[in-house]
Amino acid sequence: NLDGTDDWMKMWGTASFPDQMGAGESWTFSFQVNFGASAASQTIWFKGTTATYNWLYTDSGGDLIFGSAVSNTIMFSETWNTNFTGTTWYNVVVVLNGSGGDYEAKCYVDGSEVASTAAGAYSSSNSLNNGGTKLGFGVLLNVVYYAMLLDEFNFWTVALDATNVAAIFANDTGVLSDKGNYDQSSYLW
Q: Which of 107, 122, 115 shows the shortest CA–CA distance to 162?
């Protein structure tokens, strides 16, 4: 039950979730979220421990932040000007392009790219496989639970471009097969 109370997914038989979040890898993660009464200071997903983690959350103003730390050292943190509010459904896509010398992170909300307000340095040698096999949703360190609604999870092992993101949001097709401007179904994990 993905209801914001102690929710998590686990990839069995491997030491990482998702298995393509390693150093130099590209991936795309999409979901729908409704924060309920407030979008301020909410954890959307979390993987790891208090010292070593990957964390997607909102700040006190409803802006989306994606961060990573290893042994209490912040590896990167990126903030996007999403300005989420409560009781509204949002389609969110986070893209990490691991090709080249550095990662490039992008965020799309309801099919449109959102400006970054605080870009972090993404080293291609930094693995995002922090914290074991569980990826928690609506959970902060397995202690504090938030009452948000999450739906339509999708994960690709490539960085989707803006054309694919827009096609998915416009509901031109489902994500299981290529159609129109969406041509990445073979990378859907």
A: 107
- pLDDT by residue (tens digit) across 100-126? 656 678 999 999 999 998 766 665 555
Instruction: Tell me the two tokens of residue 77.
Output: 């943190």
SS3 category, 145: strand
Phi, psi of 64 (to 5 degrees): -85, 135
Place of tokens 């097709």: 173
Overall size of the chain counted in residues = 189
**What is the rounded distance in angstroms from the CA atom of residue 132 to the CA atom of residue 161?**
29
Rounded Cα distance, 18 and 52, in Å: 16
72/49 Cα distance (integer angstroms): 10
**C-alpha radius of gyration, the chain, whole number:** 15
Location of structure tokens 């300005």 = 83
- Specify the pTM: 0.83
In the numeric block, which tokens belong to residue 186? 């073979």
Strand segments, DSSP code E, in the chain are 7-10, 27-34, 43-48, 53-58, 64-70, 73-80, 89-97, 104-109, 112-114, 116-118, 134-137, 139-140, 144-145, 149-156
Question: Measured between alpha carbons, how far is 65 from 55 in angstroms, rounded to an integer?
Answer: 8
Parallel/antiparallel/unpaired status of strands 149-156 and 27-34: antiparallel
Residue 65 has pLDDT above 50, yes or no: yes
